[in-house]
Structures are given as C-alpha cells and as structure tokens.
Amino acid sequence: MSYLIAHPLRVAVLAAGHLEVVGLALAVALAFAVPLGLVAARRPRIAPWLLGALGAIYTIPSLALLAVLVQTFGLGFAPVFVALVVYAQFMLARNVAAGITGVDAAQVNAARGAGMSPAQVLLRVELPQALPVLIGGVRIATIAMISIATLGGYVGGIGLGVLIFNGLTLHQPAMIVAGSIATCALAIAADALLRLAERAAAVSS
Amino acid sequence: MNPAAIAFERVTVRYPGAARNAVDGVSLKLVGGELVVLLGPSGCGKSTLLRTVNRLVPLSAGKVTLDGTDLAELDPVELRRSIGYVIQAVGLFANMNVAQNVGIVPSLLRWNAGAVGERVDELLRLVGLDPATYRARRPNELSGGEAQRVGVARAIAARPRALLMDEPFGAVDVVVRTALQRELIRIVSELQTTTLFVTHDVDEAFRLADRIVVMRDGRIEQVGEPFELFEGPATPYVRDLVHGGDEVYRRYYLRTRELLRAT
Question: What SS3 state is found at B165?
Fold first, then answer.
C-alpha cells in the first residue's frame, strides 16, 4: 500500500495504459467474436468445431503465446493487444452463440412470419434478447483480459504489470503489491460495472 | 385490402432428408373471405401446407397463387407483411411491450407513429383487451389467453389479405379456447379476411369452419362443408374422424356452432 500512496500518479498512468490496451482489445475482439458467434449460432453442425478451436486457443498458456507473438510483432503494445484479442474470442463468441440460440424459436418463427428480413429478425428480436448473455461474456472476458494484460509489463512496458515485473527485478515487494492491488481493483470495478449493464439489459429484454 | 383467393395447384413439399413428401400433390382453392380449416393428425402435412402460403416452407413442386399471382414471383418478406400469421406458441417478442408487438407489421410497413398507435388501440379493443391497461404490458405479464389475443391482434394489424392460423388455441384451457373461438368468428366475419386455420381438434373444426379439409399423410382425404363431411364421409377414415352419422355428435356440433355465433 505504501507505494500506492507514495506514487498515486504513476499508478494511475499505468492503470490508464492497462485499461487502454484492454479496452481497445475488447472492441476489436468483439468485431471478430460477434460474427463468429453468429456463425456458430446459425450453423449448429460447425459450431462445436468452431467453438472447440477457439477453446483450444484459450488453453494456450498466455506467457507461451506472448513469446510467440513477440517473435512476430516485437516488444511493445502489439503483442499484448493481439494476445488479448485472441484470448477473448472463446468467451465472447461462445456467449454470442449461446445468447442467440437461447432466443425462443417461436419468436423467431413469428418474426419471420410477420415479414421481418433476416437482418431485422437479428437486430429487432434476437440480439436485444441475447444482450444480457452477450454482456455476461464481455464481463468474463474483460476480467480475464485485465489479468492477462499484466504480462504487458514484461513484454511491452505497459500497464500495471510494469509495477509487478519491476518490483520483481528490483526486489521491491511494495511495488509488486501495489501493481497487484491496482489490477485487482480494476478487475473488480469492471466486474461491478458490467454486472449493472447485464442487469439493465435483462430488464429491458 | 380485399380478401384474397388462395389456390394450391398440385403442391408438393419434401423436407431435405425426409423419406416421403410432407405435402403430396395437394390442390385446393379458397375463395375470398372464407374460413377453411385444415384438419388432421400431427404429421399429416397441414401445418406445412399452411406455411407454403407465407413461403416459410419452400415448394418442391406445384404452385400457390394469391388472387392469381404465383407466390414464387413475390418478394417473401413483402408477401409476409400482407399475410397474418398466428402460431400455437404465440411467439410474442419478449423484448417489446404489447403495443410494440401489435404494431410490428404496420411499423415494418413504415406507417407513421400516430397511425400505428391508433391502430393498436383499435385492435386491442377488437380482441377484448383494454388499451390503457394492456398497451405497456410485457408478454411475460400476460395469461395464455391474453397473450394469444395479442397474437391475433398482431396478425391482423396491417389489414392482411389472408390470415394463417396454426393451432392458435391449442395451448389454452377449454374455457378460454371457447371464448377465443367465439371472438375469432366475430373478427373474421367483421374483417372478411380469407382464413386458413390448422387444427387436429375435430370439435374446433366443426365450430369454426366454412369448409373443412381433412388431411392424411400429406394428401387431402376430403373437402367439404362440416355437415357434408358428417353426412357423406368420403372414406372410412373421415367417417371415424368426425363420428359421421352419429346423432349425438350431429346435435353437439350444430349446437356449439349456433352458440358460438349467438351474440
């Protein structure tokens, strides 16, 4: 705690960098995961293969994946960002698929029968009702990403992981504790916020 | 819109991978404004035949026409907006309130908001629900009977040329079902909409139908006015199904038809 109190600005800057990489990675990850989740929902025969492949990627140890990515992208922001995007796919795509397939088939039948185009069925009936499950996926993915992003301190010199790895190198336990506490605080805050969003979406769907 | 004449010409539907045709060479004509009941056991092809009219099921052979126009030439999405569709499971959109559900087809057709609102109130009254009480309700706040009233209102909101009803009252209890049947008769006679109504309930068919089409294994067994089937069943199957010639049933069918039409 002593380091946190002594260097609030430094911790805040690193926390901002941490959130930046997680936030950008989340946005880009969604751009891939929503279409992938839709494919899984629409094609039940390839869904297990698709989600299985994403799940397999998810099981790769993050340090090993980062080591490979550093070979390609060099040190810095890029390998961390790419690793986060890749890791998030499984949790996000799975929840998109679960949310869409969970919508009552009778409503989809009625929507088509009422003359909604496929896009209208998706946007007006399916996605609004899948939203709580989708946000649930975002919540789980965000928490995991906040934790994985600490490795950014090792390979990118970004985020709160900087405190943890510098603390290790410099034998400064106070820095390690400060980095860990701040990371946990971010994760807990993200969890609480997204839980609220999840509940709000559930009420209106 | 004027009630549409619907014609099926040697319509055949075979689902991918199925061993036999779900609908097998069915020809049938509905004149504008009549209520025709498709009657038969589950798996006889009645729902499939119904769903060819709004093109939710593709034809394998034959054609379906609406006022002489081959449906294959129409855009399916636009076609469906001109045809009401009511299903047993109701399928009210859970993310919308009652007013939004009822107004969905008018809003898809881009009626202005004021016109949609007026139409919603008019329809809720037509199906016996007070607009002030029900407009803002969510589907999960409705009883089964109320939900299906909303389902019927949604189907007829944009003054469809035809109304397709797929076992609409199959999931509600018998008291509510009778009330809904009575209202359907009133609504259909008021709107003069050509209606195709699927049921496996012989009693319901006799209550509602101008004509009954008995189906079996994808084919039409007999077509006729209810008491034609009753007095002159074409096959033993039809006779057994409608209890043909049984005096007790004849009186029961006559009486319930009268009662549902009495004001």
Answer: strand
Q: Do B95 and A205 touch (CB under 8 A)?
A: yes
Instruction: Tell me whether residues A111 and B91 touch, CB distance under 8 A.
Output: yes
Rounded to 5°, angle at Cα B28 from B27 and B33: 160
Domain presence at residue B1: no
Q: Which residues of A touch B105 (CB under 8 A)?
A: 114-115
Helix (H) / strand (E) element for B108: namely helix B104-108
Taking only the tens of pLDDT, chain B with its 263 residues reads 578 899 999 999 999 999 999 999 999 999 999 999 999 999 999 999 999 999 999 999 999 999 999 999 999 999 999 999 999 999 999 999 999 999 999 999 999 999 999 999 999 999 999 999 999 999 999 999 999 999 999 999 999 999 999 999 988 888 899 999 999 999 988 889 999 999 999 999 999 999 999 999 999 999 999 999 999 999 999 999 999 888 999 999 999 998 888 86
Give me B14's structure tokens.
């075979």
Query: A202 and chain B: CB distance < 8 Å anywhere?
Result: no
- Residue A82 and residue A80: Cα distance in Å, rounded? 6
ipTM of the complex: 0.92
Residue B91: list chain A partners with CB under 8 A: 104, 106-111
User: For residue B22, which of B219, B257, B195, B202 has the smallest C-alpha distance?
Assistant: B219
For residue A110, give the nearest of B79, B81, B91 by CB distance.
Answer: B91
Secondary structure of A23-82 in HEC code, one letter for each residue: HHHHHHHHHHHHHHHHHHHHCCCCHHHHHHHHHHHHHCCHHHHHHHHHHHHCCCHHHHHH
Q: Report DSSP letters for A84-123, one per residue.
A: HHHHHHHHHHHHHHHHHHTS-HHHHHHHHHTT--HHHIII
Domains, chain A, in order of start with CATH, read 2-203 (1.10.3720.10)
Count of structural domains within chain B:
1
Range of the domain at B58: 6-261
Q: Is residue B155 part of a domain?
A: yes
Q: Does B95 touch chain A (CB under 8 A)?
A: yes
Contact call for residues B197 and B36 (beta carbons, < 8 A):
yes
The CATH number given to whatever domain includes residue B34 is 3.40.50.300
